[in-house]
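Following up on my earlier thread - several people asked me to post the actual chain instead of describing it. Fair enough. Here it is, all 379 residues.
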Amino acid sequence: MSEIVEQLNVIELTQKLISFNTINPPGNEGGLAVYIGELLLKNGFEVDYPIYAKDRLQLVATKGLSIDKPPILFTGHLDVVPLGANEWTKDPFAGEIIDNKLYGRGSTDMKAGVAAMIVAAIETYRYDSPKGGIKLVFTADEELGCNGAQHLCQSGYDLGEASAMVVGEPTGNLPFIGHKGGLYLNAYTKGITAHSSMPELGDNAIYKASRAIVKIEDLKFEAPKDELLGYPTINVGRIEGGLNLNSVPDKAAFTIDVRTTTAYKNDKVWIRLKELFGEEVSLEKITDLNAISTSEKNDFIKIIFDILEIDSADKSVKKSANFLTDASVFMPHLNNIPTIILGPGEPEMAHQTDEFCYVDKIEKAVEIYNAIIIKNSTK
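Reply from S.P.:
Thanks for posting it. Predicted structure:
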């Protein structure tokens, strides 16, 4: 076993990670990636910094790799969302602790999870040498559509193999075995402008958009129920069009957010919407990520439910996330390895003003990750 240079406190590390302003846009994850990388280097990891963009680095770190078994992969993102319009009552970058709550932008989503992964990965080697080793992948630009992960996989970067994956997104330390996919679209309509006193001379683009939106409101996907994820959903979140009150608008635009399942994937939605709108609406993909899930019967999943002392047959136990994660990108890229979404953050606190994560759950996450590493290496 390699010598451990320093004893890490996961709470202090979480506070340190929060102190880096990685609000996306612009992200600026480079400084944080280097800080984490230097910490891992001191503790015997091999570290690489794939470049995503200017001042935006990603991080891939490994230790104990062998030919006997692929490593377990832990992944999280380094960017956070903007502070929002409402004023914070806590310093968003101080990591202040009050009544077991650690406050700060990214505390829940998901720097506490990243910190717990780092500490668990380092501490494991203090007591054991897990077969297959450990791989850490920390991405940039996740919040705007898992773009960093997609860049990593599409750029030709050799991510290597993995036996299983843990995604440290906020779940309150509950194990989620899947999440819906996301197909985010821009929709456009075109018309012909004219003076509003003579609308018959024009072609109203807003009317076209309105007709399309009414179709969406009444749309029922002919989709079977996904045992884990239920049915797909669709929503129009934003609309704009026209220049002024007394003109017929010659263009309009709106957004479409479809959440898909493993039983009704994004390509089917795309075809259905194209058929629904015909030539009147043009569509542009913003994000195109499919749903992911792993069977409860998978050995890796069984290990985690056993560690957490949760009965997977209990119908009252929530087993899927409501949000997208980098697993949508990494899981298919890595031959659909078994994947769990499990992190100390509170799902309801993600992106909120005065975001916080419970201190005891951060500490507990380290214990859980340690147990996962050890038990996975012996199966």
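The mean pLDDT is 96. That should answer part of your original question.
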